[in-house]
């Protein structure tokens, strides 16, 4: 005989999932952020605004260029065009030297067991803490003996001294993360140290290289202290010194001064926009690694 079937209790109904609550950002935080952003960007707006008005002064300037004019930019290019080219040459030369020195030095500090490696890294960090005026005074005495005062190579070397330590510390963090197995595989395939460095390590450290090179360019492009200390002739005057001297000659007409400032900002803005994803990856990677 078969046992009678035991009745089973009906299954309890499954509870419906609770609706997800979406936290909305309060409007107050957004308004405060917009106000702070407007305050930070107001000098940039005012610089562009004054540059588009003819014969603008510190007392009679409209809040908006209702009749924009580019005459100030023409005058700025005539007066400051040579200084822009000098700044470009100094920045490019400094970036090239910084990259050529910092990249192999970073590879050596990251992968070679060098004696005193920690001391070298500490020295690179300490150089970032020394006031620029101290370095400028020391370079002035050295340049006076070497005949590098008022010279383009002198400014390039001086600005490279700022970019090399920063680029070296940044690139080292990337090259330290390159797997040793990849380097050993390249060596087994017959590549020497130089070929391994150029063909394997540098492509894998691209974000760090671009970030270090860009900051080296910005250090040199915006330099004022070295230009003021190591150059006193118009033949070797970067745009920072050109604008500084321009202020004394254009006290009644600020339009050319602001136009020169806008032109001086353009290379930095263009480079930052073009390389922003590499910079973000380079800074975050250098901080985490």
Overview of this structure, please?
By secondary structure, this protein is mainly α. The chain has one domain (80-288): MetI-like (MetI-like fold, Orthogonal Bundle), CATH 1.10.3720. The protein is 70% helix and 0% strand. It has twelve helices and no strands. It has helices at residues 27-51, 71-111, 117-127, 132-146, 152-175, 180-188, 193-204, 206-221, 225-230, 239-249, 255-274, 276-288. α2 runs antiparallel to α10, α3 crosses α5 (152-175) and α5 crosses α12 (276-288). The longest helix is centred in the first third of the chain and has 41 residues, at 71-111. The model is unreliable at 282-289 (pLDDT under 50).
In brief:
With 289 residues, this protein is mostly helical. The chain has helices spanning 27-51, 71-111, 117-127, 132-146, 152-175, 180-188, 193-204, 206-221, 225-230, 239-249, 255-274, 276-288.
| CATH architectural category | Orthogonal Bundle
Q: Into which percentage range does the β-strand content fall?
A: under 5%
The quaternary structure here is single chain
State the end-to-end distance: 75 Å
Show unreliable segments: 282-289
Q: How many H/I helical runs?
A: 12
Mean pLDDT figure? 80
> Which series of helices and strands comes N to C?
HHHHHHHHHHHH
Number of DSSP E strands: 0
The CATH class designation is: Mainly Alpha
Q: Give the helix proportion (percent range).
A: over 70%
CATH topology: MetI-like fold
CATH superfamily: MetI-like
Radius of gyration: 29 Å
Protein name: Carbohydrate ABC transporter permease
Membrane topology: Multi-pass membrane protein
Transmembrane segments: 27-48, 84-107, 119-140, 152-171, 209-233, 253-274
Family: Belongs to the binding-protein-dependent transport system permease family.
